[in-house]
Amino acid sequence: MILKNIIKWQKCTVLKKLKNLIYKIIITEPIKFEVFDYDSPTSSDFIGDCHTTIGKIVGSKNCTLVLDLKDKKDKFSGKIIIRAEKVNQCNDEIILKIQGKKIKDMRFWTKSSPFLVFSRITENNFPLKVLETKHKENNLQPLFDDIKIKAQKLCNADYNMPILIECMDYNSNGKHDFIGSTQFSVNEAQIKKEYKLKDKKYNDAGTLFFNNFQLIRKPQFIDFIRGGVQLNLVIAIDFTGSNGIPSASDSLHAIQNNGQFNSYQQAIKLVGDILLNYDADQQIPMYGFGAKPKLPNFYYNQTMHCFPLNGNPQNPDVHGMNGILNCYQQVLKFLEFSGPTLFNPLLTETQKIAQFSKVQNYQNYYIMLILTDGEIHDMDATIQTIVDMARLPISIIIIGIGSQDFEKMHILDGDDGLIDYRGRKAERDLVQFVEFNTYKNNIEALQREVLAELPDQVVEYFRLIGEEPKQVQYQRMESIQVQNIPQANMNFGQNLIQAGFMQNILQSVQNQGIQENNKPLNQQQQQFYQQYPQNNQFYPQKQQQQFQSEKQAQIFDQPNQIFGQNISKAGFMQNIVQNINMQNQDYQIAPPPPPPPPPPGQNY
Q: Which residues form the VWFA domain (predicted)?
């Protein structure tokens, strides 16, 4: 059976649950069902189709609609039963281990090969299949594989709902024989451990023992958000040569004269808008990789695999979507695309931030958004770092741009468990890969895909470290006070830099600048850097001596202060900041400087 919901096709099987169909009472949402006779993965015969709306399904008796199927000649070809069910949001999991004893033998020469089929029984006594175990060959005392299933999937989080277990004898031709069945509920299974199987004549057909039954209560994503967890977006963009140079019309980074977005701009806008909804302060660090950055304030003549797009390693933030798009477009003029494509240096720097946040017990969770054309040349190192990051507050969302082979990106996604070259398996899933071209014309589908795994990843991280959502602290409006904390902010920014964050980049850029640019500034350069001294911090000392000492001090002090303020907004050092003596009330720090205008003769 094939479901067509407006635009996107989804392949389904008989009695398969169709999820995430949003019912809006004020909107008529058409839906089409097509039924096929399956022959092979590439060949199926059309049986018939029917049209309806979600509203008609929901509005029918017991939310169940029976429709006629029509073939290509508009003749009757069968019926289809469609049932709508409200999904109860629940993160609880059920772990179950079942052993069979004295299972009825259905064969003459050999023994039965039993397997179990789980179906939940709906309000109108309709069985909905939710799980099937692997069969145990020629075994009348089978110990079935461990079962781990979401409570929402098993019983729609209704712990009194009857669950039907059918024990079947496996046949390779697909015509399995019924052995017997029994029923249980989640609440019942927490007490009762033994269930008798009954065949079609209600005779004994064996016994199922629940050797282990656990109902694991798991909080939901929203519980952590309400408890104070702050989500922080970090963006990284691929500027390797495989994307094509921006001046080429077929480049993924080509800037169109008519104002149309290129592939990266489209992805930044559509995906960024989705994730920015969850970033409270809208201050977004932006990094590039795979290019030689030659910005006026950040010059390096070797390929860098993690560099700040605004040229300031101490404060790589831009503000909001406009800041992201402007920064991206402006920086293209100052990049020499190169290679190879390395993810690990980028992940390592983000790992430092997440580790620092965790050590300080901050309620921060980082979302690293990587936009890439799919090529990667440090797969082993990248997988190792991702495995290492399982116990850090971070998720990685990779957006595949263009039409390259994304096989390696699917490997990194690794929903079944990422394993590094040393054989270590990631303790949780923290990577989601989305191929942009597949969803760029369907924003709702793109939104669902981008956020498909993030809530569970956040919940699983806090479960892994044994932390429950914090209780919501309600305050009376009159008790809320604005505290002045600039000194603590400044100190925090300096402490993080001293702790080693981005030190390798800072040092290498300083050394490169001294080696390659140790010559006097011309008159235009002097005017530019005198007007915007914050952009002169990485030029060699010989050039800096051309300025007044008080301006030279601003070069280093101001970025540290601004960086501290931005980090504080993300939730850092709040426990310390709250204890700052209010005698610092009069202390003020200058606001961040405006973005610099282009240097004379350059459009930046």
A: 232-450
Cα(393)–Cα(355) distance, integer angstroms: 8
The CATH code of the domain that includes 122 is 2.60.40.150
**Are 342 and 303 in contact, with CB atoms under 8 Å apart?**
no
For residue 88, being part of any structural domain is answered with: no
Instruction: Tally Cβ neighbours within 10 Å of residue 598.
Output: 12
DSSP 8-state symbol, 112: -
Do 168 and 205 form a contact (C-beta atoms < 8 A)? no
Residue 194 and residue 277 in one domain: no
Domain boundary among 216, 244, 279: 216
Q: Which domain holds residue 40?
A: 2-83
pLDDT-derived band at 303 (thresholds 50, 70, 90) equals very high
Q: Is the torsion defined by CA of 437, 441, 445, 448 positive or negative? A: positive
Among 23, 48, 83, the domain boundary falls at 83
**Nearest CA-CA partner of 318 in 603, 506, 595, 604:** 595
Cβ atoms of 262 and 250 closer than 8 Å:
no
| Three-class DSSP category at 154 | helix
CB burial readout 511-544, b (16+ within 10 A) else e: ebbeeeeeeebeeebeebbeebbbbbbbbbeebb
Give a yes or no: residue 488 inside a domain: yes
Residues 504 and 457 in one domain: yes
Rounded percentage of the chain residues whose pLDDT exceeds 70:
73
User: Are 201 and 178 within one domain?
Assistant: yes
- Residues 6 or more apart in contact with residue 604 via CB below 8 angstroms: 295, 296, 330, 333, 334, 598
Asked if residue 224 is part of any domain, the answer here is no
Cβ neighbors of 340 (< 8 A, separation 6 or more) are: 240, 290, 375, 377, 378
Q: Are strands 364-372 and 64-70 parallel, antiparallel or unpaired?
A: unpaired
Q: Which two tokens stand for residue 473?
A: 């602290």
Domains in the chain, number: 3
* CB-CB contact of 132 with 116 (8 Å): yes
Give yes or no: residues 174 and 240 share one domain: no
Nearest by Cα to 283 from 311, 323, 313? 323
Asked whether residue 78 carries a pLDDT value surpassing 80, the answer given is: yes
Q: Based on the domain organization, do 603 and 561 belong to the same domain? A: yes
Residue 447 lies in a domain: yes
Given a contact cutoff of 8 angstroms between Cβ atoms, the answer to whether 54 and 29 are in contact is yes
- Strand runs labelled E in 554-600: none
pLDDT in tens, 100-151: 999 999 888 889 999 999 999 877 777 889 999 999 999 999 999 999 999 9
Query: Smallest Cα–Cα separation from 209: which of 141, 160, 276, 258?
Result: 141
Same domain? 385 vs 488: yes
361, 314: one domain: yes
Average pLDDT of the chain? 78
Task: Supply φ then ψ for residue 494, to 5 degrees.
Answer: -65, -40
Residue 13: partners with Cβ closer than 8 Å, 6 or more residues away: 1
Q: Is the pLDDT of residue 41 over 80?
A: no
Range with the poorest average pLDDT among 95-104, 315-324, 359-368, 502-511: 502-511
Residues 382 and 469 in one domain: yes
278 membership: H or E segment, kind and range: none
Instruction: Name every residue whose Cβ is closer than 8 Å to that of residue 83 and which is 6 or more positions away in sequence.
Output: 57, 62, 63, 64, 65, 122, 124, 126, 128
